Fold this sequence. Notes:
Blueprint: H1 7-22, H2 26-36, H3 41-56, H4 58-66, H5 78-93, H6 99-113, H7 116-134, H8 145-148, H9 153-163, H10 165-174, E1 181-185, H11 192-201, E2 205-208, E3 215-219, H12 229-232, E4 236-238, H13 241-250, E5 257-261, H14 267-275, E6 281-286, H15 289-302, E7 307-311, H16 317-320, E8 328-334, H17 349-352, H18 355-373, E9 376-386, H19 395-404, E10 408-410, H20 419-424, H21 427-432, E11 436-439, H22 441-444, E12 449-456
Parallel strand pairs: 5-6, 5-8, 6-7, 8-9
Antiparallel strand pairs: 1-3, 1-4, 2-3, 9-12, 10-12, 11-12
Amino acid sequence: xxxxxxxxxxxxxxxxxxxxxxxxxxxxxxxxxxxxxxxxxxxxxxxxxxxxxxxxxxxxxxxxxxxxxxxxxxxxxxxxxxxxxxxxxxxxxxxxxxxxxxxxxxxxxxxxxxxxxxxxxxxxxxxxxxxxxxxxxxxxxxxxxxxxxxxxxxxxxxxxxxxxxxxxxxxxxxxxxxxxxxxxxxxxxxxxxxxxxxxxxxxxxxxxxxxxxxxxxxxxxxxxxxxxxxxxxxxxxxxxxxxxxxxxxxxxxxxxxxxxxxxxxxxxxxxxxxxxxxxxxxxxxxxxxxxxxxxxxxxxxxxxxxxxxxxxxxxxxxxxxxxxxxxxxxxxxxxxxxxxxxxxxxxxxxxxxxxxxxxxxxxxxxxxxxxxxxxxxxxxxxxxxxxxxxxxxxxxxxxxxxxxxxxxxxxxxxxxxxxxxxxxxxxxxxxxxxxxxxxxxxxxxxxxxxxxxxxxxx
Length: 458
């Protein structure tokens, strides 16, 4: 009689297949799967750890797998790929799982989804890796940069070139820590202290954020955020402190008109609406109607009314929204980027991002920024932001924009930079005095995030 496969591992196998073979977004796959499958808290916690752990460490796992295969790892059956990766992750990183259990459970999974040859291969390779782990022959901590930090050679080379070896190691190590979950308090509905009490009733541990006054760091204990009553009641929104800072530096006030370009899922639009006390107008623009629906859903949940949405191509904004030229007090441009600042919470970027893709983004970013600049009234504010640590997408884009636009100037913000952020890293004050800031995960404790602020001359 065939033994039943472990539910958590079986679910994880299907989720990883979606990510590895169908290039699905890990966060969307995880949310959908957990909602449709009943797992207890322990099973859910293990599933999430194995799912994100396998994706995050995939280049390290593949390196050690290849050393134990006679043929190229890439030539193996796709299902065998995923099963081996899951198994080696458990052997190397899931220290609470006995090695024999990891091997046996993955052999059960192999029996469900591969042929006899695949089962034999999984069994043999995992037993070999298990023995090597036991004998100390697998030691990623003392391996070369790309293996140690699980980055492909392209990304490893870029990081070292941009920041130098020592700083690159510090950044790469920060991207392997356990990700934190940060909530932005909806001040229109609740105070930060009252939200702490509400979360405690839901058995969620929370503490103040690192530098943003509206931030709380949550320990969900394996629960999904949508299960919390405070989330359903619109008391908070999940948003990293770096992203919060972009809206904060726009410094919107009641009665203003703000344009949010590339706005979905609406975190910054909603934050600016809250800062304006829901009095004024925020126009949230995005390319697809389905993405704008997320903005509208978040606005409704948070109890906001001042956000309108418009479907438009950000690279041709003047053609699609001509009546709004030079109309807005502020325009926020969070452009499509390589996302390298999000490696901690979106590890699938490790699988998909290449140097070629980064280069292809540069002209798109420049065009979007140039188009968005036409919608700022004289004397108004333009904020450019990315969630990457690539200087070519960040400071270089800001420099090129200022060189091309004599009607714009840098808009310093050292005077309003959160005091706690300046204490975390005093160098930010100097950067902010020139109207820009680069947040890094190792020194700032948040996602890698870049913000430049400009002012249109009167």
